[in-house]
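Annex B, item 7. Sequence and C-alpha cells for protein A, then protein B.
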Amino acid sequence: MINGKHLTVVMPAYNAELTLRKTYDEIPHDIVDDIILTDDASQDRTAEVSRKLNIRTTIHSENKGYGGNQKTCYQEALNIGSDIVIMLHPDYQYTPKLITAMASAIAYGVFDVMIGSRILGNKALKGGMPLYKYVSNRFLTTAENLLIQQKLSEYHSGYRAFSAEVLESIPLLENSDDFVFDNEMLLQIMYFGFGVGEVSCPAKYFEEASSIGLSRSVIYGLGVLSTAVKYFLSKRGSKRYAIFNPDGKKLTPRGNL
C-alpha cells in the first residue's frame, strides 16, 4: 500500500513466458498488494509461469486483442477493490522500478493518471526504439497536442498508472479491442477532466519484447489521428461519439458486483 491505498499491478500478456519472471522480480513487492495477469490465449507457457509465481491469472480462451485484454485486467482489478492500478507489460520493455514513483503521485493526490514517457530524458533511440517508430511518435504526438490542446511528451507509452476513480468513470468498454485502445483511453481521461502526469521512463527494445510491425503501426497511426479528430469535434459539440459519451458503457465499479 501507499498512503493507505490498495495498489494492484495488472499485466496484459501474450507470449510472455521468456520475460515474465524477470519483470516480476523487479516489481516492488513491499508496496504492491496484488498482481493480476490476463493471458490472451498465448501460444507458450505464459499462464503456467504466472501461476508458479502466485500471480492472479486469468486466461482468455480466444485472443481478444490488446485492448480487450486490458479491459479484462482493469475489471479484475476493480473486482478486488484496488485503489490504484498500474498497467505494466510483462515483456520487460518498461522497468518496474518506476512503480513506486508513479503510484505515489496518485496516492497523494498529485495526479489521477501517470504515464511512463519514453521521450522525456531523450533515451528512446538509445534504448533501441526504431527510427521510424520514433519519428512517427513525434509526429503523432505533435498532431494530438495541437488538436486536443494538451502538452504531453508522448501519447503512446504502454506504461500507465490510474486511480480507480478514473477506471470507473470513463466509458472504457466503448473502446477498440486493438492497439488504438491505449490512445482512446488516454484521450477519454483528458476529455473528462482528469489530471495526467508524466515520468521519464527508459524503454528497452530486444527480440523478446513485444512490438507491432510497420503495417500495424500505420493502422495504429491512422486510428490515433481519427481519435484526436473525434475528441476535437466532441469538445466543440459538432458531433458526439460513443467513446466520449459520459453515459457510454463502463466497467463495473468496486462494490457493485
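Protein B:
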Amino acid sequence: MSASHSAPSFDRRKTLKTLGLGWLALQMPTPARAIGFAGSAEETRAMEVSEYIQKNYWDQRRNLYMDKPGKQDPTAIWGGGIVFSSLVAAARHDKKYLGLVRDYFRGLDSYWDSKTKIPGYEPVPTAGNANDKYFDDNAWMVLTFLEAYELTGDMKYLKRAKETLAFVLTGWDDKAGGGIWWHVAHKDDAKNTCINAPAALGCFKLSKFSDAKTAAQLIEQGKKIVDWTVKVLQAPNGLFMDNIKVSTGVINRGTLTYNSALMQRCFIWLHASTKKQEYLDQAVRIGKAAEGLLDGKTGAYRDPEKWSHLMVEADIEMFRHTKQIIYYTRAKKTCEFHYNKWKAKPDNEVIDVASVARELWLVADMETSVGKMFWEKADRVTK
C-alpha cells in the first residue's frame, strides 16, 4: 500500500460532494437488465457494478485487474484484495463468478514473493526477493481467502490464507509495547490499527479451520493484538485512531472508518466465542460512536469507498449478531449513496468501484436466501 494510505487528519478532510454527469456515454454503467441477470433488486445493482468492473478493468490474458480503464498497470494488491472480495461475494449469487475467483487467484500469484524466507504479497507484481511488503495488504488477503474457502471448500484458499497470516505475524515486535508494523521495512515508523485489527481478526477466523492446539494459539495471538490496539490506539469515544509513531510515541488521532470497523468485528467474534458481555459492550460502543463518522448532509459514511465499505461490512455483521435494525439501515443508506454516486459518474480506479460492488453484494446477502444461508454458517466461530 502506498504512503497515501495513511490517514489524513480531520481538519484536512473534504466533505464528499455530489458528483455531476458528464462521463462519456461509452463508459456509463450497463443496466443490469441488459446483462440478463434476473436477481432481486439488491442483487441487480450489485451485478451491474460487478459487470462494469469486468468490462472495464479485467485483463483476461494476464488474469489481472487494471488500476484504471484502458491502462496496462494492474491495481496494487490492496485494490486487488478488495476486487477479490467482491468476486467471492458475487460468486454466492452467480456461479459464473466462481471461475473468475479461480482465475484471479492465479493472477494474484504474480504479486506473491515466494523467494523470501517467509513469503508474502508485494504491492505490485514482483520477480521475487523484494522488500516493499505492507503487512496490512497481506492481512486483507487472509480474510478474503478464508471467505473464499468458506464458500468453495477449495483447500488452495485455506493454504494461502495460512501462509499469508504467517507472514503478517512476523510484523509483531516489542517496540511501542508490541503491535504489528505497517510495513516490512518500517516505512513511516508506524504501527497502525489498519494492520493490527485485520491481523487479529485473521487469527480468530483461521482458528475455525485449525486443530485444537493451533486454534488456541491463534486465538491467544489475536487477543494479544486486540489488547495492544485497545491500549495504544483506542480513542476516548471508543473509535480507533490511525497509528503510533514508534520512535516518538506520537499518535495520529485520525479515525478512518475501517480502523474501527475491523476492531468492531474482532469484538463481535470474541463475544460470539466467549459470550462475555465486555466484548459486546465494546462492539456496541463502537457502533454508537460510528454515528460521528457519518456525513451530516448525505447520511452516509464520510470516507471514500475504499475505507468506508468496511464500516458498512461491520454494520451488517453487527446486525447479524445483534438483530438491531439500526446497523442495517445505516449500512443500506451508505450503499445507496455510493451506488447513486457511481451511477452518476463511475469512479476511475478499480479499488473504489470494487468497494461499491462488495458492499452491495453484502446487502444482497441479507435480502436473499443464498446470502443468509452462507452467513449463518460463516458466522459460526467453530466448524
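Comment on protein B: Confidence is low (pLDDT under 50) at residues 1-28, 30-36.
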